[in-house]
Amino acid sequence: MKRPVTRRDFVAGAAAASALASIPTAVRAAMGPNDKFDLLIKGGDVLDPSQRLRGVRDIGIRYGMIEAVEADIPVARAQKVITATGRLVTPGLVDLHAHVFPYGSGIGIPADELVQHQASTTAVSGGDAGANNFAAFRRFVVGTTRSRLFAFVHIANIGLTGFPIAELYNIDYARTEDAARTLAENADIAIGIKVRMSENVVAKHGTEPLKRAIAACVMSGVPGAKIMCHIGGVENAGLMSEILDLLRKDDILTHCYSGAPNLQNQFTNIVQDGKLLPAALAAKRRGVLFDIGHGGGSFDYTVAEAAIAQGAGPDTISSDIHVFSGNTPGMPYLTWVMSKFLNMGFSLEDVVRMATITPARAINRVAKLGTLQVGAPADVSMLEVVEGPVEFVDTRNNKRAGKVHLRPVQTVAGGIAYGRPYNAPFSVR
Ligand SMILES: [Zn+2]
Fold it and tell me: Where Zn(2+) 1 is bound, by residue (predicted)?
């Protein structure tokens, strides 16, 4: 017999998760004068927006954590050295919206295969799995992946289907209690609920899917459980404002600068007729996070430029990379999307902040994720700042010329490099 699920049912799981979050990622032993760093990243141009740090520094790594950030650490003090002269060295990049459930979804890419293309050390699954298949994501993907993985649980119990029939054409798949339970049971890696609100996903169901997603966050009892709300062309112009009005502080509006039309080819985005919706500005002001989620159809320069000029700038830069978007001319790899914003007038510090500390705080599961502070997990990205003419294209064939782009060079996760120098034994977290 079915009994109503109450908030109390989820509290035990949530409490366990918050206790986990407070345990340090490793126990640090004091380093003696003759102890060596496991790895030294030497001579890089370090940029860490979390501590307003910019300058040439050496980074000493030991036991999987940042042990020292100093002007000069002698090579003799390290077991292994990566020379980073001339490279930009940042905290490991955090991709807040990616599709990293390979084998379990029709669009997923293995997160570790993205590393060479976008230097990410952390990726968040943008709702690939729902209640029916989240266990598969956890057991078969998270456990076998070096990149740190987190996820939004899809409000649809079947997860994100999308191609060719979207998951919420049938609203009965949006199951509040099942999503709440899955979020609570997996709160160490699940950070909230994903819902796709464009007309090509929810048909004529209006705001009901979003209302169920918010109810699932509340019902889960997980502290800080948030919504990742995908937008695109919605059924009518007014519906976009209704969606925006429902979003709460710290909820994430992804594809925020989508210019995709609805099914009647009308433009019902956050910028309509060149004007930013008052509801979008209000959402921004009450602390809704504006996330890029570029993808294959969700970034429009004309929407972005108007929204930014009228007060709704981005908070986080994410890729929305998957097997379809990765083949599009917009090339939505994280470092390429960061490069687009670098050429839209944002500083290097701005774009690195939007792909490190800000998304890490939104995840809020690992102490000091997204920083290079001593005691942080030793996740480090090394990039080349390539000067020279470059052309970018959005997902609606608008082109922009640029003067610089970021190229991934080398990545270290949990103190272990991807590729050389190899670790022996090849032990990772
Ligand atoms: Zn997506």
Answer: 97, 99, 194, 320
